[in-house]
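A sample follows:
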Amino acid sequence: MSNALAISGVTAVLQHFLNTACNAPSSPLGGVSVSAVAPDIVQNALGTGSEKPQVNLFLHQVTPNAAWRNTNFPSVAADGSTRLNNPPLALDLHYLLTAYASADTQAEALLGFGILMLYENPVVPRAQISKALSSLPSSNPLASVLSASGLADQIEVLKITPASMGREEMAWIWTALKADYRPTFAFDVSVVLIQSQLAVASSLPALSQNITALPQSSAPAFRVVLPSGEAAALPGDTVTVTGQFVPGTIQVLLVNQRLSLQFTATPSAVTGSSLSFAIPNNTPAGVYSLSVKVTNASEIVLQTVANLPLALAPTIPSPATATVVTNASGSLVTLNCNPPVVAGQTVFLALGGAMQPAQTFGAPASTLSFQFAVLAAGPYLARLRVDDVDSPVAVNWSAKPPAFTGPFITL
């Protein structure tokens, strides 16, 4: 998820794209200044009659995103202070793109280049966001921190759409801005997800479930079966896909779209109704889309099975060992994880009922640090959460009642 710098990051990315489009070597516009301030500031700086070509980007309104606003609000426990969850703050950003020029038809040309750039980039790629935020000019006072906003790593990608704004609404906005109207194009950017990094309480895993479900429709044709009824697979596990497969050469593909990762696996056992394959070692934890492709000797695709969800869990090496350093903020816990995490992943560590996010890490990283408040001495059940997938815990089911047996970290 993004942090509180995400709104500023969106504006900085758009400003970078506009500057690239208007000042491209093939552009006939010449030197164009691209700013991101209020129109009255631009007007006061330019004066009258002699302004140089300039394109200005202005964020005039921020509204809640309609699709995400039904998620839970931040909540606390009965004591009024223990944080229970940190749902994202989902926002839509509303912009005005304005052209300033003194020569005939120049403002129209400026606006045309700007609108075309927005039209050709309805979805902003994550790689382009990272590139833009890492190459901001020194004139931007936040150039050194916006690259850490998490904007490129949030679950939702940024989408640019034109906004329908009538003459009365446009006139009202410019009257409120106390600036003279210039050629303007309105557009929206959706969605920005800002999530707090405050510590939250984490409940222990359920030891048993008693759920009865009555199917209302037939079972899906294809299903992913994990070893021993696990909730998530582990690197090296053998996973089975059941269904009806036609004869041919079978290839299994695992895709993590958010991290731009892709892995292939060759089935070890294939029948007409199932196939089995091993999860490649060092596959980063997270939620993957599993696809199966069946081809003949001429590499013609005979059958495709796509978008089967598969969760891969991280593990805490056994026996679990951790280094604990007492500092001014409490207890800094450092431990190893497997497989290593990669850039852009969200990582948390839960010790007992307390959970904290990982400190900034390089990629890939197999050693992570977590800053907790002061922790009392004793054993803590440890769970590592990577991209919302928890590491497995062991349970002694023969005990009455059942009891957790690890992994424990003793402080």
The helical segments are 6-22, 39-46, 106-120, 126-134, 167-177. Residues 6-198 form one domain.
